[in-house]
Every structure is written in structure tokens, then in C-alpha cells.
């Protein structure tokens, strides 16, 4: 058995984590058309309950925040019941799980939205490139609308309502998605926030306003110890531009540091070393993701981050897709499976719950029970 800092326990507020490995949020499109998670989602996350903490795929807080077809939501009683089956399965397997709340903002297309409308973000700035819409087709992008002030206020309230729904569904907490080009990130970035009002780019205070309002309102709704935030300073995904992210994110971290949040989840960037710059300013738990836009994070890379003091926990994405028992494999020094990219965004069990675990005693492969793929027609 391997002795590794990644495999040591950690206290996260009211939660006792058996290790410092976090399953990163990853969209997998295993929801019905109305956004209810499919039954296979409970199997998927329960298989990975050995993670110190699981963070779910991005979940839209309300229909205006839906960015893609068959992404899950947390808006309706049906959504809450669907997620309750997931959290019950994870807790029965000994795990801990946060819901990531993800508002798409400008991202999306009328043919991929339940409302059938044009998405809205801070400003009317196009996302270049063809987009996935209903039934796996692709369509040309549409120009998003600029949100009204009333819509901005409603989005803040929708985040808080979804956080309360997450508590009703049995989640241990929520992570607000302020990264990877989604709505909170859109208010922070140079090219997606061209507003001239109190939420606009005229001052640093204005640029930070939406992020601070969302975090504060959600913390008020469910408690700061159950509220977390993910940020990806300088991340260029989906044509985001942040010419000088340092001053923006230093100011944001300074504003949020004293709230007592569960954790800050940071992705590092080759052009802006977020962990080096922001760790000294954050006095709570910090989760590091060092694989964003890079090679898959290895055990050694995770250990190096912990040893440097730049983080308390390390999130793993792709490695958890094909290795449901990733902590066990690290402990045994066992080889890792590679994931099957052809099934990342399909709707059944293939490439989702059919990756076999190892025996923690012998290291032998343990057969997975036969979980039939869910036919597309069965969910509308």
C-alpha cells in the first residue's frame, strides 16, 4: 500500500473526508429532457463514493440558465426527487457529495433550451463556433441577449433557490460554478462583460458585483459552511479573454475570504499561476485543479501540490471517469484505465458505470453488475 498525502484524512467543516482526492465536476448529459437525472446517475456517483468529496456535474439552477440539452437541473420537485436518489446512494456507499450550480449565461441555443429562447449573458457577445443542440445535432451560434437588471437580480435569487433545493435533495453542500466560461465567469472576464451599469466593466467593484452577490446570497440561504466557489482565472476556454486576471481575482478572493466558505476551488493556468498568487490570500480550504487544459493529473502531480502548501485538496477529473475506485488504485500503485471518449456525452451506462473497480485487498478486477444502456426513446 502506498503512503501518500493524498490518502490522508481531512476535516472540511462538518464533513470528515477519508482522503484529499476530490472528484471534479464533469458534464455527462445523463438527464431526461426536462433535466431530471437518470437512474444510472445514482449508480455512477455511488461507484465513486471513495473520493474524499464528489462534486457533481454542472446543474442549472433555473431554465434561463440551461446551456445544453439533457443537462440536469435543480429547479422543480421532480429534479429534487431525482437528485435525492443520487445523494441517498452516495451516502449509503459512505460518500460525501456537493452539487455544482452552473448557470450558462450567454452559452446555449434556442434548440437546446426548454424555454426555446435566446440565452442571455452580461453582454450581447457571441460564442464562436457551432453548438450542440437537441438530438446530437449541431447548429450555428446565436447572438445572446444582454441581461436586464431585473434578470440579473432574478439569477441571483435562482442560485439561492437551487441551493435550497440541493439541501432538500440531501446534498452536503453546493459549489457555485464561477469558472470555465459560465455566467459568473462571464461577468468577471474582459470580453464578455461590456456593460456600462453597476455590473459592468467601468470599475473593478462593478465587475465583481455579480459574483459577490451570488456567493453572499447562497451562503445566506444554506450557510457559508455549505457554500463553495470554483474559479478558473485566465482560462481561455470558449473564447474567454482575461488580459490581466491577477488584480480581478485578488480583489475577489479578498472580498470572499472572511465569509467562512466551505472551500475555494481553483484551476491553475500556464499564463497566470493562480495557486501561487491566490493561496496566500485565502485562509480557508483550497481545492486545486492542475489538469485544466493540460494532461490528466497524476498521483505525483497531486502530491506535489499538497507538498507545496498551495492546496489542501486536489480535484481529479478524467482519471475518475474510467477509474471509479481511483483512491484505491493510488493506494495499491495499480495502473489506471483510460476513458472511452465516444461515450462521454451519450445517455446510458456505456462509458459511465461499466468501468470495473479493483479489489482493495488483491488488486484484481471486480466484475461490474450488468447495467443495460438506457435507450434514448425511453426518456423522450
Overview of this protein structure:
This protein has 380 residues and is α/β, with parallel strands linked by helices. It has a single domain, classed as TIM Barrel (Alpha-Beta Barrel). The chain is built from ten helices and 14 strands. Strands 3-4-5-10-11-12-13-14 form an eight-stranded parallel β-barrel, surrounded by four helices. It has a two-stranded antiparallel ribbon with strand order 1-2. The longest helix is centred in the middle third of the chain and has 20 residues. The protein is globular. The termini are far apart. It comes from Marinactinospora rubrisoli. This is Alkene reductase.
List keywords for this structure.
380 residues; alpha/beta; TIM Barrel; eight-stranded parallel β-barrel; two-stranded antiparallel sheet; 29% helix; 14% strand; globular; disordered C terminus; OxRdtase_FMN_N
Amino acid at each position: 500500500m502506498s503512503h501518500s498525502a493524498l490518502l490522508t484524512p481531512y476535516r472540511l467543516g462538518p464533513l470528515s473526508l477519508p482522503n484529499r482526492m476530490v472528484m471534479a465536476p464533469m458534464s455527462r448529459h445523463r438527464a431526461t429532457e426536462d433535466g431530471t437525472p437518470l437512474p444510472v446517475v445514482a449508480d455512477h456517483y455511488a461507484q465513486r463514493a471513495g473520493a474524499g468529496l464528489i462534486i457533481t456535474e454542472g446543474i442549472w439552477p433555473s431554465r434561463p440558465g440551461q446551456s445544453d440539452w439533457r443537462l440536469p437541473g435543480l429547479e422543480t420537485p421532480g429534479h429534487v426527487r431525482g437528485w435525492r436518489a443520487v445523494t441517498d446512494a452516495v451516502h449509503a456507499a459512505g460518500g460525501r457529495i456537493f452539487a455544482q450550480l452552473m448557470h450558462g449565461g450567454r452559452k446555449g441555443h434556442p434548440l437546446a433550451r426548454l424555454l426555446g429562447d435566446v440565452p442571455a449573458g452580461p453582454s450581447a457577445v457571441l460564442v464562436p463556433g457551432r453548438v450542440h443542440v437537441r438530438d446530437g445535432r449541431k447548429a450555428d451560434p446565436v447572438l445572446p441577449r444582454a441581461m436586464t437588471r431585473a434578470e440579473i437580480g432574478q439569477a441571483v435569487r435562482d442560485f439561492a433557490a437551487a441551493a435550497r433545493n440541493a439541501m432538500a435533495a440531501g446534498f452536503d453542500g453546493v459549489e457555485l460554478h464561477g469558472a470555465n466560461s459560465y455566467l459568473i465567469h462571464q461577468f468577471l472576464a474582459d470580453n464578455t462583460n461590456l456593460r456600462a451599469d453597476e455590473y459592468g466593466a467601468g470599475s473593478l467593484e462593478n465587475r465583481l458585483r455579480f459574483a459577490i452577490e451570488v456567493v453572499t446570497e447562497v451562503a445566506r440561504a444554506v450557510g457559508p459552511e455549505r457554500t463553495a466557489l470554483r474559479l478558473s482565472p485566465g482560462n481561455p476556454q470558449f473564447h474567454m479573454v482575461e488580459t490581466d486576471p491577477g488584480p480581478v481575482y485578488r480583489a475577489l478572493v479578498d472580498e470572499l475570504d472572511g465569509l467562512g466558505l466551505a472551500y475555494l476551488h481553483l484551476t491553475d493556468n500556464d499564463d497566470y499561476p493562480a495557486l501561487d498568487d491566490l493561496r496566500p490570500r485565502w485562509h480557508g480550504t483550497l481545492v486545486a485543479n492542475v489538469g485544466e487544459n493540460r494532461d490528466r493529473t497524476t498521483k505525483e502531480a497531486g502530491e506535489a501540490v499538497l507538498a507545496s502548501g498551495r492546496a489542501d485538496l486536489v480535484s481529479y477529473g478524467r482519471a475518475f471517469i474510467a477509474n471509479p475506485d481511483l483512491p484505491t488504485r493510488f493506494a495499491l500503485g495499480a495502473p489506471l484505465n483510460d476513458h472511452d471518449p465516444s461515450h462521454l456525452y451519450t445517455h446510458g451506462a456505456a462509458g459511465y458505470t461499466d468501468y470495473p473497480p479493483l479489489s482493495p485487498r488483491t488488486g484484481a478486477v471486480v466484475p461490474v453488475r450488468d447495467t443495460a444502456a438506457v435507450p434514448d426513446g425511453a426518456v423522450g
